[in-house]
């Protein structure tokens, strides 16, 4: 997860941009009557984000009365139509999407879309609220369900409000296995039947169990273990030659120091990137550093 600064455009400003033009007077009157509801809803939402209590938000307080179905649709259309290309609300959408960053949910994909942190179908007052609009990659947007959290642990991390990247929580381990599939610790010069690099959440002591559960939920929601494993499989063949050259001169210790150096270098940017976890795990693995890297790089 990557922390991002919240958008500069405020709720009221965004709301007025969306209904400023290309809209009939009756529709503008209807939507305009909801401005105060939306501003109040955005304030409650922000407070819930800051206190990690989104699961306490009651959908009824974030939507017109059920009898006003047309108004609900019009509020949702503020995002779907009035932030479209050439519409006055477009800058709100673009501020969310045009971030010079990787997807904040996975840290791997390129930002292609905008996601509603709290779904607009359940919380229509938040459909066009800038702090509810998050940049996201296509895979993460597909993986995330259109439902609201029902408990503390089900809140995925919010890049504008949650900041856990000062702590090291992402780890990896290289697991080697025998022919029968059972895991064992391969020794130098062994040729294990298979191996896998497993990424996992390793909560620091300073976290309580609820925060650990929440980060694990985020990790599982966006399939990060598989995503990082795929990235590692792609990365290792590309650095095999460099590792081989280090091994030739410095042996297993040299490889270990080389991998640890790569981890330190990557950690300067993002402590919890998959590369930091990968390189650290490999630096600590005797079999890998003693020549196992060739088998790993071969896939
Ligand atoms: Zn992503």
Explain briefly what this protein structure is.
By secondary structure, the chain is mostly helical. 46% of the residues lie in helices and 9% in strands. The protein has two domains: 144 residues, no CATH class; 129 residues, no CATH class.
Layout of secondary structure:
Elements: H1 11-18, H2 25-32, H3 35-50, H4 69-80, H5 90-97, E1 113-116, E2 133-136, H6 138-143, E3 170-177, E4 183-184, E5 194-201, H7 209-221, H8 224-267, H9 274-283, H10 286-298
Antiparallel strand pairs: 1-2, 3-4, 3-5
Bound molecules: zinc ion.
Zinc ion (ZN) binds at residues 103, 105-106, 109, 136-137, 139-140.
Written description of the protein model:
It is a single chain. The strands form two sheets. The protein has a three-stranded antiparallel beta sheet. Helix 1 runs antiparallel to helix 3, helix 8 crosses helix 9 and helix 8 packs across helix 10. The relative contact order is 0.12. The protein is built from ten helices and five strands. By secondary structure, the protein is mainly alpha-helical. Helix content is 46%, strand content 9%. The protein folds into two domains: 144 residues, no CATH class; 129 residues, no CATH class. The longest helix is centred in the C-terminal third of the chain and has 44 residues. The site of zinc ion has 8 residues, from helix 6.
């Amino acid at each position: 997860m990557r922390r991002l600064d919240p958008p500069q455009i405020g709720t009221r400003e965004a709301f007025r941009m969306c209904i400023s033009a290309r809209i009939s007077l009756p529709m503008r009157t209807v939507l305009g009557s909801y401005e105060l509801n939306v501003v109040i809803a955005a304030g409650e939402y922000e407070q819930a984000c800051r206190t990690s209590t989104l699961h306490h938000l009651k959908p009824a307080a974030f939507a017109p009365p059920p009898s006003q179905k047309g108004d609900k649709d019009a509020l949702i259309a503020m995002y779907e139509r009035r932030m479209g290309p050439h519409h006055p609300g477009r800058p709100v959408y673009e501020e969310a999407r045009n971030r010079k960053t990787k997807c904040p949910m996975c840290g791997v994909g390129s930002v292609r879309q905008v996601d509603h942190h709290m779904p607009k179908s359940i919380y229509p007052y938040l459909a066009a609220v800038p702090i509810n609009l998050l940049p996201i990659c296509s895979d993460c947007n597909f993986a995330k369900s259109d439902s609201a959290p029902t408990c503390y642990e089900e809140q995925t991390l919010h890049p504008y409000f949650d900041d856990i990247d000062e702590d090291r929580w992402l780890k990896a381990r290289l697991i080697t296995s025998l022919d029968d599939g059972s895991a064992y610790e391969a020794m130098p010069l062994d040729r294990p039947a298979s191996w896998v690099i497993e990424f996992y959440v390793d909560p620091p002591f300073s976290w309580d169990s609820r925060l650990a559960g929440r980060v694990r939920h985020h990790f599982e929601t966006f399939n990060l273990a598989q995503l990082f494993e795929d990235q590692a499989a792609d990365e290792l063949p590309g650095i095999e030659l460099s590792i081989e050259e280090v091994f030739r001169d410095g042996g297993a210790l040299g490889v270990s120091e080389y991998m640890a150096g790569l981890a330190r270098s990557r950690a300067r940017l993002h402590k919890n990137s998959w590369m930091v976890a990968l390189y650290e795990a490999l630096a600590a693995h005797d079999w890998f550093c003693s020549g196992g890297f060739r088998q790993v790089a071969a896939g």
